[in-house]
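[job 4471] stage=fold_predict status=RUNNING
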Amino acid sequence: MRMTLRWFAWFAACVPLGAAADAPVASVQPWTPMGVSSELFESHPAFDPKTGELYFVRSSKSFSGWRILHSHCEGARWSEPTDAPFAGPGTEADPWFTPDGRSVYFISTRATGSLKSKDLDIWRADRAADGHWNAPVRLPAPVNSDQAEWFPRLGTDGWLYFGSNRPGGFGKNDIWRARETTPGQWVVENAGPAINTAGDEYEPLPSPDGKRLIVEADGGLYQSLRGPKGWLPRTKLGPAINVNGSEIGALFSPSGKTLLFARDTGEPKSGEFFVWHIEGNESWPPSCGGTSVKP
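[job 4471] inference complete, writing structure tokens
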């Protein structure tokens, strides 16, 4: 979760990585759901697999004061957003649900109540049998460190991917991954030089089939494909996706055929959602009052 501001050309054609030269051009469109879209900064969407509720981060136009909100479909529009049921004090962001809907990961400074990003740690809340959320639990060291952690996302390979500016990486912020070997015991390792550089890498998003990794880094969104021995060197996604380097908070649809992300569109509006239809004509994000987007 972070932001850079650069301004380049507006929409241009983009062919998905790995596609043939004559493959259909990808479609990128704004997604401005009524009841959620505002003059403030909306980013980092997540849909609860159990309830269909939309969770997202809202902050100021200058991308500060992050809070996780949630909204449900009322038929014609999304409801007025309110704090997430597991909300705590301080700064909170980057919600992500496991596919079965039993757990949600996010980052929070609730341990200190601080508004400083340095105090951001990874937390997880588990759903109780009655559907309510149990009290969130802070993941232990070495998953969390004395520095900031960002954007926890669980891959199909069993690793929890996240960003951190902890020591020992290849540059500034790097992508790391953690695995629980026995209950309460974790191992952590750097995601490696195919993913990380001397610059900043913040947000890792494994695809639902585990074959791709979207990485938000300096300059926007990149993609790495999984090879026989691990992740292959990353490649920057096309200009329809990376319009100005501010693209953040990506989310795959359950099928992996669509990507939802946020971009800073500038004044008078600020952060806004965009949908990239990578392939096919999938009607996603979920419709509420006609807000689904088809290519």
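[job 4471] summary: Confidence is low (pLDDT under 50) at residues 2-25.
[job 4471] exit 0
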